[in-house]
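Appendix B, example 12.
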Amino acid sequence: MTRLLQAIIYFVALMLAMPNEASAQNKKKEQFVLVIDPGHGGKDPGAIGRRGNKEKTINLNVSKAVGNIIKEKYPEVKIIYTRSTDVYIPLMQRANIANRAKADLFISIHTNASKSRQARGCETFTLGAGSNAEAKAAAKYENEVILQEENFEQVYNGFDPRSSESYILFELLRGHDMEKSVSCAEKIQRKMVTRSKLNNRGVSSAGFLVLHQTAMPSILVELGFISNPTEENFLASKNGQQTLAKGIAEGFSQFYEDYKKTKIDNSDTPARNHNAAQSNDVAQTVQETQANEEEAAPAASSNAPIFKVQILTSQKKLKSNDKRFKGIKADYYRENGVYKYTCGASTDYNAIARKRKELSKKFKEAFIVAFKNGKRMDTNKAIKEFKNKNR
């Protein structure tokens, strides 16, 4: 069996095993659950600095500091650590801890390393195919921890972190909670940079297995480069760790306040009226892009899911010539008062997957969304429906 076939089988298996997004949202949960994941631990030290400092120790110290700051400000938030001591936790188990807890957010905290002593700065990642070569290398390095696990090929259904073919599954980017992940990543990255004054490496996407296994908005933070002597000193110091923790906590605070506001807005509006308003907003988009859809799939059933590529969001309606579109003609739909801009529309998932790959050159965090009968639907469910109809 080739690596390509194994990767496809692995992706399909994960899609079938992934908790249904709609049903997860319908489960009422009064308490916000945050899972903080200190990377590495135990027999896996992670990266080691030139002065002997270990990534696993820095990750744990910063993670605990983040949790303490958040708990002090938001005592109602339930915080769960994937590890609170120096122990080894497999990647699958880390994600399962979050999934079992029905977490609302997963933050994995790591420390970066490079062969170059000059590499510097902090960076935040979401799940994706890989924004650039450096992002792909970072994901490959973090994923190689599974090589320490017994029977890793069986546990991860043939995924080999050393093989580039295994990463094909991340080209099949799912839209599951991607927008919230990107929003959280941007907030945390901005606050980390503001607090620490470290070089801003921005928000990127890459194929981190630990993020792929989770069923909620998930991000991975790279605090800085332990391979850079100056940053190693900062990362290993109590002041540096507390500074970075404050930045992460402040970014979370912005994300959590938005979460609470959305929850209040939804509860203040009768469910029937809210759903009707949302349906009208989406219907407007479907009407605007009807010509494109008919051109993309003229013989398709009107009941088939329609796939689009979401490229950006805005609190206000943007002009068609807005520079943020980078010369791309986009349509929009509204959801919870937010304008969400898309490009392309087709009942053929494979065509939109190719479109997303093309658009990702200009919009690094582009992801696929799905609609049916004028309403936004779970992307995973839409993909399954498409595959079942095209067997």
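The chain has two domains: 3-263, 271-389. Residues 238-268 form the longest helix (31 residues).
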